[in-house]
Fold:
Amino acid sequence: MCRFLCYVGPPVLLADVLHRPTHSLILQSYKSRERKEPLNGDGFGVGWYAPDAGPIPCVFTSLTPAWSNQNLRHLAEHVRSPCFFAHVRAASPGIRVGEENCHPFQNGRYLWMHNGSIEGFSRIKRRLRESLPDPLYDAIQGTTDSEHAFALFLSFLEDPHQPIGGEEMGRTLIRTVAQLEEWRIGAAIAGPSFYNFAVTDGNSVSTLRYVSDPKVEPISLYFASDRRYECVDGVSRLVAAAVGEHAVVIASEPFTDDRTGWVRVPPNHTLTVGPDLRVQVMLMERSG
Amino acid sequence: MTKDPVCGMPVDEGRTAHTLTYQETPYWFCSEGCRAEFLRYPDEYARAPEPESESEDV
Structure:
């Protein structure tokens, strides 16, 4: 499994989020705290929006470990963005390690990434692929369950080239997981599956922390909102924000020097951030 | 009505099946997932202020 982060708010230098914090995502690529296996060295990726360049995000992925990639370091020192995704990968057993399998995945204006695994995916893969319209079928470049889930998500949109509001994004994410679960249960796959997905169109972000068996601890996921992110002289933190200054940060593990402001995403809930940076938490199921 | 201490959602004490008592204080939850999360980190959630984010059931 992997580690990821999402940032949305006032434009920030990527290096101030990805490299400088004490427990940065780059450090998590070899020393994550909340995974049994701390190494996430099977490639990485960053996808960011530059509003003055249009709605399509730029994506940089590499098969090298994030901790040793000098191109990422140089790039991160020169790119500011109001919305970006970053991911360090630990490939699931049996899934190819290749650049085409590095997250975030991009299609049109959308970015997608995943921390987790779909149990028994090979047994539902054919059904999923056959459900896709041709353009989404053809767009799949790699072999991961994650990228296939992205294609499924896009197939539920009326027009995958248009932006959608946060509420519709959250609903579509729930529908995607519900469909995957229906196929998993139909194939008598015992599970558990871990669906920590994140998706954005550059305006809204939706993510979830979900495990198919509620008695199993889901993969870690945290968020911080209503605060301003700053990194001054190498010290990163979330501080009280004036109107218009606050950001929303979502991450597999808190990465700031000071953990103030971080909250766990509740298990089996979605978290959606609208264009106004308003955060909404929704239950995905009601058991009992 | 009360609030789920994990996710902050409103919970009807009379209708939810997901409840527990911790240090003589009863808690009610929206789902088994939140109850299990509380049991994993009881001191954190028992002491925590109510989440600030706006919540909504679906």
